[in-house]
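Same chain as my last thread, 225 residues:
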Amino acid sequence: KHEISVVFPNHILLGKSTSDDYTASLIVVSNDFFSQLRHRATFRNHLAYHMEPAFRLNDEQYESIVNCFNLIKTICKIESPTKTAMLINAMDILSQLLDEFRFTNSKYTWTSNEQVFIDFYEILIANYQKSREVKFYADKVCLSPKYFGTIIKQTTGVGVSEWIANYVILQAKSLLDKSARLSVQQIAIQLGFSDQASFCRYFKAHTGISPKAYRIERREERKGL
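reply #2:
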């Protein structure tokens, strides 16, 4: 009763048995949608869920999660140009509640390497506009860049540079998509780039298209909804 599990891609599960009175509510996320979530704060403590996917909620916590489930179900049924954005926001709320409840209820103890990643991610959220250099973040956690990079890669399967780039691009896409009044130049400054040209080169290197092309592409997608 009141047990919840969070299972990430590539985490192999083997179903063994269920009792006759077993019921469950599921949220299944597509790869495309998950790619929009994975470099947000959403389920940022995914390493903990990998080590211990299931944990139990008390009655009050369970009621809060059920309310989130129902909100997500409602959003899924509506037709709106902002549907994806609403779903992402709802999933963010769900993930933050689960992180909080898991921290309160779980007995899992972080390894030192996992703690390095958690510290890095919190620092990244606060400083991505200031620096995109591995050394900057290695210095913040008091490790050499080489050793820091090894820890993050071994712990998460994703390199430090990729974590940084993906987070910056996520923020850039959000601004390009939702802040129509901001010019590309203004977005570049807001993200901490020295000029529009350097931002455009960075964005295209990691997405394959220019910021302007991405903005047009998203506008056309919304028209088609």
